[in-house]
Amino acid sequence: MENEKTFEEISAEIIALLDAKKYIRARDEILKINEVDTAELLEEIIEELGIEYAVILFRMLPKDVSVEVFSYLPPDDRLAIINVITDKELKYIIDELDFDDMIDVLEELPANIVDKILEKTTKEERKQINTFLNYPDRSAGSLMTPDYISLQKGMTVEAAMAHIKRVGMDSETIYTCYVKDQGRKLIGIVSLRALVIADSDARVADMLDEDMVYVNVYDDQEDVSEMFKKYGFLAIPVVDNEKRLVGIITVDDIFGVIEEEYNEDFERMAGVLDSGDAEYMDIGVFKHVWNRLPWLIFLMISAMVTGSIIRSFEVLLSNVISLAVYLPLLMGTGGNSGSQTATLVIRGMAVGNLELRDALRVLWKELRVSITIGFILSCLNFAKILLLDRESLVVAATVCISMLVIVTMAKCIGGMLPMLAKRVGIDPALMAAPMISSLTDLVSCITYFSLATIVLNT
Amino acid sequence: MENEKTFEEISAEIIALLDAKKYIRARDEILKINEVDTAELLEEIIEELGIEYAVILFRMLPKDVSVEVFSYLPPDDRLAIINVITDKELKYIIDELDFDDMIDVLEELPANIVDKILEKTTKEERKQINTFLNYPDRSAGSLMTPDYISLQKGMTVEAAMAHIKRVGMDSETIYTCYVKDQGRKLIGIVSLRALVIADSDARVADMLDEDMVYVNVYDDQEDVSEMFKKYGFLAIPVVDNEKRLVGIITVDDIFGVIEEEYNEDFERMAGVLDSGDAEYMDIGVFKHVWNRLPWLIFLMISAMVTGSIIRSFEVLLSNVISLAVYLPLLMGTGGNSGSQTATLVIRGMAVGNLELRDALRVLWKELRVSITIGFILSCLNFAKILLLDRESLVVAATVCISMLVIVTMAKCIGGMLPMLAKRVGIDPALMAAPMISSLTDLVSCITYFSLATIVLNT
Known about the structure:
Two copies of one chain form a homodimer. By secondary structure, chain A is mainly alpha-helical. Chain A has three domains: 2-143, MgtE N-terminal domain-like (MgtE N-terminal fold); 149-250, CBS-domain (Roll), CATH 3.10.580; 280-457, SLC41 divalent cation transporters, integral membrane domain (Tetracycline Repressor, domain 2, Orthogonal Bundle). Helix content of chain A is 66%, strand content 6%. The first copy, chain A, is built from 21 helices and six strands. In chain A, the strands form two sheets. In chain A, strands 1-2-3 form a three-stranded mixed β-sheet. In chain A, strands 4-5-6 form a three-stranded mixed β-sheet. In chain A, a hairpin with a 5-residue loop joins strand 5 and strand 6. In chain A, helix 1 (2-19) packs antiparallel against helix 2, helix 3 (35-48) packs across helix 5 and helix 14 (221-231) packs across helix 15.
């Protein structure tokens, strides 16, 4: 991790050099670091010294380095640079970017700039670019690149290697090659490993993997990332509905997908609408409000229902005011118990350990877990209420029996609701923490006051 | 996704064939599918027909296929198979497994079986295996494999390719090769792509990347996965404290790490102790209780404090009993508002968009967001309380002013607490939902009753 450790120092040094207008030395220092780090450094330069300094440096980098660095910049910094450089420089960048990065860049640019760029491409290119721009967001098509290596079935290994040598520079990966029939249908894949290990006069056909796994261009990106996780591939072919090969997705593009899906789950769990790729600081105040308000209102309405249940027990409550003291305890414990189970079940379903047919087994396990937990918590509370709070035995009994019932119900609801959601085709992640706790709040209130009515009236 | 779709059918077919004792035909069908899928099928066979059928089939597979399938089986199924096969078969599997898979298998086996296996290895092998078994769980060392390709700096491309062809079969990857000096120190890496594209009489030294990124053998697996995400590598070298190359980690092993870290975050957010790799169903009832109880007790204690605050306002509450009706509403909204912000800030810090130095900017943004949200929610409630609940203006005012204050405080706490945690070196994920909501419960209660005292006494 030496590189990681010294990066802060290096970047401070380079920024100092730039500030002192020692551009040549700054550039030489930059050329020693990885392009990903250079992009990070440029971000810092833009923030600390301003865009002019970043562009001066950007222009001094060797062309191929500058294009690669550009591809690693975040959208707003890309746009900032595009706004300052000449049309010619922009054209160069667009031409030299890997196809999938170019599409990403075009997707982020304002329409008038995209039109300006497309004007300068050939009709053929324009058609392909437009096809790629039109694949739905989050589809396999939006992730793929058409820059893969095609081999012929009849080629010898020697011929194949010569071909790879010739076109390898412009391909996204050379480590997996693809074989198509006359109709452009995918018939198999060959790994470079197989080619390197094979004798040079062997045929590509002999080492063809014809049972390859592939995805459809309209498949969801989450399914694609599941396949990478499951099979450990470096690349996966993408076909259209006629099984014609239209592109490939490489493993390095999957990390972004995993992070995006992960963010989405996280946000759902916290009751926030999906903010996509946008960073916290880049989202405006009103957009933040917009993303958070719907859940809060939904949960507020459910809390209003809970409130009206309390209201219906107003007489009971005014007779035994100390019942109110234990309400947060019971509602809180119910909510937490339920969301623990819900989280485990949702995760289990997401990673494929739990299926719908396991529902009864989950229920049986949660029943035992919750009764054990409920019993322990009840005993603790019983002692605390009698000895510390010096409440009457009936109040202690009411609270503790309620605790046991509430924990048990909350855990069973927490286990079953995500499964039910999946059964009827709703994303189980929507059944997470906020949903479960608002439901258990309701259940807790009704249970507690009903039990109190029974116990205290006898 | 055709493969995916037909997998269920294929597996049903093969299970039917086995059940009818048509082993040869079952094997032929199996050989048509990917080894990862075969492992999944074996799991199903063990579950539905029993281990004997799985072993019969396992023995009929070509040796190299059976070893690969074995490496994809879950731990308990591996153990089931090991318990039935002969020592000779076990020895073969252990010998043929990739080094990192072998270490994984050994780690899961009971000590007596591991001893039995190690007896049959050479002293040299035993030493290496023991070194690898001793790397701490979740360290880079526990993920790596020593099966990488070493090249000499002075080699021509032709010699390098010949070397790769010779040893490529036994290496974890051939796509990145490593160059060491006499002292086994890592001096650079060469990609197979560079070798394939270069002229055959070029020297390895000319295409050496000497500014490569590497990790230390004791680095945390999360840092390793961050580097894969950041740089998009296919493999990363692992060095010891003297920068000697001891192994490599390949990208396919990183997906498991990401999932594990993800699970951990998820569990922390729900207040469950880390269950590691264990699957929901494989965890016993008491272990489930053990994993969940600490958080529930911790949160229960905090709810008890909230309860005693309510108790201290008992007189007020018995005078205006309808105050209790709005308690769940205020506490719930406070908790949800706080955990929304906490989640966003924790995620922002985890993916590197938010730094500690952004604290004031986060506070400023949350302040504006929360006042907007608080104002909207207050207005909705004001109308509802006056018009639907037909409460007095003072009660409505008390609830709505409390709502505004509570939402604002909850969001500021939710934003600052994870940052504070990071500042003092605690994992911010521990500050998530349950923690935040128990804190905001306290704040909500105090705010509400204090305001009520002021407003209702005037």
